[in-house]
Model the fold of this input.
Amino acid sequence: MKKIFLILAAAVVLSSCATMPKESPILELDNIALDGEQWIKVQNIDKNTGKPIANAECAVYLLKEDGIGRIVTKTDKHGWVYIQNVPDGKYYIMFSGE
Done:
């Protein structure tokens, strides 16, 4: 019984790692450290067609006591942006063309 439990536990860990999204490339990082424990996950959708917009530039802003933090990245082929290790706070997100 112990062997079966260990095999199941290993399978669960591997499957959860396989479903983790690939982090978006960080193009610019200003006045912010990616040392938090939160994720940002957002999708850019065309307002007219309802389809995702791939490779769109995305700026993420964080209001902080010492100013504004900024992260610049791009959407993936499905229009998604994933940024890990962001600190807690209130974020504003703008995609290119907005």
